[in-house]
Amino acid sequence: MTKKTIGFVGTGVMGKSMATHLINEGYEVNVYNRTKSKADELVEIGAIWCDTIADLSKTSDVIISIVGYPKDVESIYLDESGIINHAKEGTTIIDMTTSSPALAESIYNEAKTKNINSLDAPVSGGDVGAKNATLTIMVGGDEEVFNQVEDIFNVIGQNVVYQGKSGNGQHTKLANQIAIAAGMLGVAESIIYAEEAGLDIDKVFSSIEHGAAGSWSLSNLGPRMVKGDYAPGFYVKHFIKDMRIAIEESEKRGLYMPGLLKAKEVYEALSEAGFEDNGTQSVIQLLKDHIKKG
Q1: Phi, psi for 75 (deg, rounded to 5)
Q2: Are 60 and 30 in contact (CB under 8 A)?
Q3: Residue 185: which residues within 8 A CB-CB, separation 6 or more?
Q4: Would residue 58 show up in a list of annotated catalytic residues for this protein?
Q5: Nearest of 152, 88, 153 to residue 122 by alpha carbon
Q6: Catalytic residue among 58, 88, 165, 173
Q7: How many Å apart are CA 280 and CA 270, to the nearest integer?
Q8: Is the distance from CB of 233 to CB of 128 less than 8 angstroms?
Q9: pTM here?
Q10: How far apart are CA 199 and CA 192, in angstroms?
Q11: Rounded CA gap, 148 and 263, in Å?
């Protein structure tokens, strides 16, 4: 059976690794990125560069996007020069950006008018998950369409779960971000306390990451915090965006989320301190400065 041609829009920290896995699996991959140089390594291993999103859309059977903000998603899909206006009938579009559930539904409905299938499929696992093809993928849309492209998801992810109707992938990702928001502060504060108490931090990790305090953030981002490695696996600015959407969706439902609100406040202060393009683990630097000042 001939493999589908995949169009990939957004070849940044996450997208480049995801597209690499698809190329290595034998898929023909068309790529577009706002900054062309970020796709150079993919072209070197066989990806086909497209000068415009319209060109990519016309020549792809499945189109995957992972970009920055909801406004970027809206532009690449719904603009006159965007994907929906130029994709072939029967194309499946998959947005893997963490975005607005309402926008996911709008894209789904607009795609339907052009006989195009649409899934919202945000991911969790950061740069490590993208590099190792172990991402968690949360998928909303028609189950029949999900079944048709599940093999593609399995190339880039390890925990792929169909969540139901359009928008549900995004709602699930927001639940994920709510769960980790305040937890990130807890990981950072735990490390600061252990260091100030003079403990061997590696021994501390070996004890607490296997107990009730264990989490992905502790095991994967805790060591980066200790080393002062703030390279972005997931940008501070994008985490703030996710929390903002989660707060908006919570308020629509009359929900008060104190942990989420506090985490957003802290991360906004981190961004204002010049860390917006660093990884989310850089929050430890702000907390160290704040805690020691009292």
Answers
A1: -65, -50
A2: yes
A3: 262, 263, 266, 283, 287
A4: no
A5: 153
A6: 173
A7: 9
A8: yes
A9: 0.94
A10: 10
A11: 38
